[in-house]
Amino acid sequence: MKTLIIRFSQTGNTNKVANSIADGIKEEGDSCLVTDLDSVDRNSLGDYDMVGLGCPVFYLQEPYNVRDFIEGLPQYPGKDWFVFCSHASVMGVTLHSMTERLEKKGIRIIGSHHTYADATLPFYPHPTLTTGHPDTQDLQEAKTFGQKIALCCRDIATGDTSGIIGLEPIPEDWVEGDLRMYTREMLPKIMPSLSIDMETCSECGECEEACPVDGIDIAAEPRKIQDPCIYCWNCVKVCPTCSIEADFKLVDSLVPGFYERYLQSLQAAEARGEYRWLIDHETINIDDSLYKQSRRKVGKKDNDS
Length: 305
What we know:
By secondary structure, the protein is an alpha/beta fold. The chain has helices spanning 13-27, 64-71, 94-103, 136-156, 175-178, 187-190, 206-210, 234-238, 249-271, 290-297; strands at residues 2-7, 31-36, 50-56, 80-87, 108-116, 194-196, 244-246. Helices cover 34% and strands 14% of the residues.
């Protein structure tokens, strides 16, 4: 069997999961290649017996660049794929949404997997609720999934579909309602706009390289930023001089409420045997966001407090 795993990863967590799944597939004697979303030839995917697609969770769903990738696929009737994601406290509808969209391309989803991972949004504190994930056990579980999905694909070739791994139900009843806030039309209205501090920008280009949708051009006049934008905030996180700025006052005010709800979701997942705490959540300083920490390191005063 010949497998391709396509992954979109920014902080490296989804990449770790993808590689662990690939290790499991290879352990069953199959070939498996892991590649980046941006380097995939959409028209060559029919050459593989199985394809995996993985990403982090953004705003309770797959990132919009991943959704665009799926929407741009040709029809692949009868081809077998699996989906996976890494996420912090809540997975949302990510695997369900990806599955639904891929099925419209004629693709059969034969398995899914999710992994808890560290969250590094700039307006959240760090360490955060899921800091420490994915750890060795998480990656071993991903490897085990790879073994199972390889065997499932092999069995399907003989007509045995009993090993297909179905989607898990969404445990949080508030997810569907919140998704109305996180549409492509709404996000620009509720998320802070970014600007570049021309006095401190070193023109290193790290923000351009970090943007997954080519939405930044520091050579343009005026400099281009957030055109387009999927609100990953990766440019903010990688800027060595904290020259990409935003007014985070509104989202800062919402963080305590979000954190309480995420804490409840993780405690419920722990009760179901699905989550392990690697950090004492009571030690988290919810008022000390990653963005504020980064500004202190470069000697900048808070501009969003």
